[in-house]
Amino acid sequence: MGKQLLRSGTSVAANYRAVCRARSKSEFIARVGVVVEEADESVFWLEMLADNGIIQATRIEPLLNEAKELTAIFTASQETAKRSRV
Fold first, then answer.
1. What is the spatial distance between Cα 26 and Cα 6, in angstroms, rounded to a whole number?
2. What are phi and psi of 13, to 5 degrees?
3. What digits encode the pLDDT tens for the residues 63-86?
4. Residue 53, SS3?
5. Rounded Cα gap, residues 80 and 65, in angstroms
């Protein structure tokens, strides 16, 4: 589970960098969609680590909250870009 969290967490950063280099609105929307998926997967793995008692929920709570906030931010960004698509 830790390796999966490492992969999805680092993927958020790498794919966000790609979002910043998008050449069109369509590419931006597609790439930010990948970021949303990876951020949500990171939330999943953090929850799994806590739910299975591998890491105490109190220790993981700040990371989990931040991962959820980032997921919400990226989702809102994607939805805004979809609505303003020309």
1. 28
2. -65, -45
3. 999 999 999 999 999 999 999 976
4. coil
5. 22
Whole-angstrom distance, CA of residue 60 vs CA of residue 47: 9
Neighbours of 73 (CB within 10 A): 13
The token duo for 56 is 């105490």
> pTM of the entire structure?
0.91
Segment 38-72, tens digit of pLDDT: 999 999 999 999 999 999 999 999 999 999 999 99
Matching CATH number, 2-83, of 2.30.30.40, 3.30.420.10, 1.10.357.10, 1.20.1440.60? 1.20.1440.60
